[in-house]
Design goal:
183 residues, alpha+beta, two-stranded antiparallel ribbon, 8 helices, 12% strand
């Protein structure tokens, strides 16, 4: 599985520093372009129903309440749709692909579950989010079509909803809620 989904010899690096000050250097090979495309399309299938519900809500008078099939729904419906469409099998599959080329101390991790279970559990979510961002941010946000749709959606949102979405996109891009500084 590792060689099939990962791209060539290029590696990406992330240093995870724990609360106790210890750090682990994680490296991985990004997914290949075709694997990114296939997984990106699977993720779009998961995201589009909930994004569609969000866009449909803009037709209503109050952009914080969705109007679907003549009934009003809140953003909870949008997130419920997302969670219902993301199956356990798909999450396991994408997790395996993202973690499949993990390298720690210049050695390929043979058993990812053992690595994170043996004193590194606090690193798991940070490593997964890092690999997700590295592999999919450009696929989704590099697309002019998707960027313009998100911009249109944000223009019609209430200020609080717009602020929340902007923070989420900033966090996905930078790993922090703060916008990047130009230094």
């Amino acid at each position: 599985m590792k060689a099939r989904y990962a791209s060539g010899k290029q590696t990406i690096t992330k240093v995870v520093t724990r609360q106790d000050g210890t750090a682990t250097v994680y490296k991985a090979r990004p997914l290949s372009a075709l694997s990114t495309s296939v997984e990106g399309m699977k993720l779009l299938k998961v995201l589009t129903p909930s994004l569609g519900a969000g866009i449909d809500s803009l037709v209503g008078k109050d952009s914080s309440v969705m109007q679907l099939d003549g009934n009003s729904y809140t953003l909870t419906t949008m997130f419920t749709m997302f969670s219902e469409n993301l199956t356990d099998d798909h999450f396991i599959d994408i997790q395996d692909k993202l973690l499949g080329s993990l390298i720690v101390d210049d050695k390929e991790v043979e058993n990812v579950d053992d690595h994170f279970s043996e004193g590194n559990i606090e690193d798991l979510m940070e490593v997964l989010m890092w690999l997700f961002k590295e592999n999919f941010y450009s696929f989704f946000m590099g697309s002019a079509l998707l960027r313009t749709r998100i911009a249109s959606l944000m223009e019609a949102m209430s200020p609080q909803l717009k602020d929340s979405l902007q923070k989420g996109l900033t966090m996905l891009k930078t790993g922090t809620e703060q916008p990047p500084t130009n230094t």
